[in-house]
Amino acid sequence: MTASLDTRVLRITRWLLDQEQPRSTASVAADLGLSERVVRYRLDHIDRYLRSCGAELVRKRGLGLVVEGPPDIRARITADLPPLADAPRVYAPEERMRILLAALLWSAPSVVSLEQLHRELQVSKTSARRDLRAGEPWLERNGLPLVRRPGKGITVVGTERRIRQVIVQLILEAIPEEVLLLQLADDPAARSAANVRVPVGLRERIFTLPLRDTAAIVRSSALGQTLTSGRSDLVFALFLAVSVARIREGHSVAVEAGLHRSVMDHPIAASVAGIVPGLESLVGAFLPAPEVAAVTEYLLGLDALDTVRSDSASISADLLDRIMGFAGEHLHAALSEDLELRRGLAAHLERLGVRLRYGLPVHNPLLHEVRERYPDVYDVAAEVGALIESAMQVPIVEDEIGFITMYLSGAMERARLRPRRRALIVCPSGMATVWVLVSRIQAEFPELDLVEVLSERGYEELAHGEFDLVISTVPLVENKMPVVVVSPLLSATDVGRLARYA
User: Most buried residue, 133, 158, 375, 492, by CB count within 10 Å?
Assistant: First the structure.
């Protein structure tokens, strides 16, 4: 039976065996980075496998999924599951693209053949080419153009410094921060639980980096007390881990003499000197001056990012005036005079300049949610991004547009400029069910004005047009206002769909 278990089935099965309480399909999907449809599609297969081993997958109404069976049987099933590396690999398109990017970046500057890529992804060459086309814009935005060498394969072109910086960017986009932090835990079980949440093709590269070792070096140095803003300590440890791995593979950086002198004369170079012996121990060799300079430069960028002030004068007042005027014209006139919004945008643009100057990563984990929840503001933010791109001559990626959306929508919420949408709840089930739904909606969408709760018949008799939105637990005929059908318990998928209208 185990021979037919693909990587997704194995990941879901291991995750379920680790749970002591029932968990929803949405929880499985969120933790493993899969869609609920993918999870549901494989549940019967998982149940058949568990039953063949003496356990079963039980669906508890209103609670979720749980594996039931004696503890010794559950432990034996976990131990007997085949390694993910030995299972047929099945990836979502986004996973395939990231695995392909990782293959190119880890191999750079060497050429990677299409044959290698299609074998690694376990898809046809046609699909591998499609994934390559999907990943190419990402590489270009990050300053590493893709070059095709006829008869040989594909490679990315760029400096070793840039390759390392972009590897860090890819890792932060592909791996949730909490999973990276679990990799630093002393408990092997915690690290194992994190492994399940990452596709095999990424895990084989990312989790072989000496991240725990470099994080320990940072924590035990003076930097452990200074890298306290945001996730600077994790990002720096990750950059060091990538650098150590690349040096071990024989890749070295070349730093221009002028840059070398400028960064090594900076006071922060003394902090780097304190961690050099630990890095040399990991590398197993003496670190040449260009490598030390590259580490110093990266740390200097993180330090500059931490010290950005909201009253920075380095951002053009004219650019800020144009942004504020555009927001006022297209969203609400009051935004053009919002001083807090202006300060926030000025500080963010200053940080943007620092990130670009030092090759630091940018990742907005809320991008998808923000885009779904504030589509009108996101469209304006995209126009603002184009304005910034033209004025500052810098690339503005989607993550940045997401951040701009957050500043603009935050300003509107703060000033109560966004009118509350009036919602009608339709639920033919019992009153207990409907009030569970009402409380869940109020918790998730406090900005909605829940005006009335009706039965299906009451909805049919209603004079339509008095509400902006109908939320129903049964399909209804739309009449002037959109109808969103949800579960009485409001699943994570329901929340995502409702966010488009809230």
Answer: 158
Give the CA angle between residues 228, 232, 237 to the nearest 5°. Answer: 115
* Contact by Cβ (8 Å): 421, 502: yes
Q: In Å, how far are 19, 50, 68, 81 from 22, measured between CA atoms?
A: 7, 16, 10, 21
SS3 23: strand
* Most trustworthy range by pLDDT among 8-17, 232-241, 444-453: 232-241
Starting from the edge strand earliest in sequence, which strands make up the sheet with 483-485, in order?
449-454, 422-426, 469-472, 483-485
For residue 109, cis peptide bond before it (omega within 30 degrees of 0): yes
pLDDT in tens, 225-252: 776 555 788 899 999 999 999 999 999 9
Which of 163-167, 189-193, 265-269, 442-446 has the largest mean confidence? 163-167
**CA contacts within 13 A on the Cβ side of 186:** 1
Q: Would the pTM of this model clear 0.70, i.e. be above it?
A: no
Question: Would you say 201 and 121 are in contact if contact means Cβ atoms under 8 Å apart?
Answer: yes
* Region for residue 420 given its phi and psi (left: phi exceeds 0; alpha: psi -120 to 50; beta: otherwise): beta
In sequence order, the β-bridge partners of residue 37 are none
Burial 77-87 (b: 16+ CB within 10 A, else e): beeebeebeeb
CA pair distance 298, 227, nearest whole angstrom: 12
- Measured CA to CA, the distance from residue 490 to residue 478 in angstroms comes to 20
Buried b (16+ CB within 10 A) or exposed e, 402-437: bbbbbbbbebbeeeeebeeeebbbbbeeeeeebebb
Closest among 240, 289, 228 to 264, alpha carbons compared: 289
User: Is residue 290 within 8 Å of residue 326, measured between CB atoms?
Assistant: no
Give the distance, in angstroms, between the CA of residue 339 and the centroid of all CA atoms in the same chain: 31
Backbone angles phi, psi at 130, to 5 degrees: -65, -45
Q: Which residue has the tokens 């980075």?
A: 33
Contact (Cβ atoms closer than 8 angstroms) between residue 363 and residue 165: no
| pLDDT exceeds cutoff 70 at 261 | no
Q: What is the model's pLDDT at position 2?
A: 44
Hey, CA dihedral for 451, 456, 460, 465, is it positive or negative? positive
